[in-house]
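User: I'm new to structure prediction. If I give you an amino acid sequence, what do you actually give back? Let's try with this one:
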Amino acid sequence: MDRFAELKTFCTVAACGGFSPAARQLGLATSSVTRLADALEARLGAILLNRSTRSVTLTDAGRAYHEQALRILEQLDAADDLVTDGARGLGGVLRVAAPVTFAALHIAPILPLLRARHPGLNLDLRLSDSDANLVDESIDVAIRIGGLDPQANLVARRLAGHERVLCASPAYLAARGTPRLPADLGRHDCLQFAFDGARRVWRLRRLSAPAQASSSSPVPAQSEAQVEEIAVNAVILANNGELLRQGALAGLGVAMLARWLVERDLRAGTLVAVMGDYQVNPGPMDVGLHALYPASRRGSHKIRVFVDLLAEHLARVEVA
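Assistant: Good question. You get back a string of structure tokens that encode the predicted 3D arrangement of the chain. For your 320 residues, that looks like this:
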């Protein structure tokens, strides 16, 4: 038991970068966390942690030990899942990491049904728009929006697409007109998401070739593969989709937003999709919604029921 406590404490200190935050996560006194880390180092006869007044980092020996310790803890969790899930129904804690706005819109609605079906299962929701490190932070399942880098120790299950739409409020379109061609966007106020690298263009691809005006004066057909990059006038630049959604609802301009974020607004008519004959942000930027979990937890029933329920919800609300 002491060795297990030492391992868990050591890995938590490494993930949190300090004894105090690790103590808060573990629900222990800071002195207890320090004592367990000291006891582990004394038993091994090696210094695993560099201690300073500002942070705690891993030594070379600590990094090597940390990698093996995490595998042991993952295997223990997997063994527990195999037995407890089948023996007495779902129980314990499921740690879920997800983006803030997505969780509010699409995880919160499934919580009542999840609790009704599995009252013994407790959820620890870690909400952040930054990607969590599943291993270091002991996350069971993470919801990721965007491109994924393949990792041998993680399983990725696609839940839905991540289609973007151009949209604006009816009042804005009545006052400023409806853009129909990419060039029209240059005359509109735009609400733009602030990606890393500060891209100030929107990428569009026509889904079908435009009709020809006449045989004597043809309009050049645009290749379906051709992508246009349009410099936009970003009157609001923000790294939060919900803020941009609120700006669009308030009539501040045209926004490029994820369909999972604005689908209810589009159905209610409070936002109107424009330029529907164009694919928005095509190509490698057109990515999906995924549930990520450690490969060692592939057989976990509690991960599966959560992910299944979320996938059913997304299909029901017709998130693309």
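You can read the tokens as a compact description of the fold. Here is one thing that stands out. Confidence is low (pLDDT under 50) at residues 210-223.
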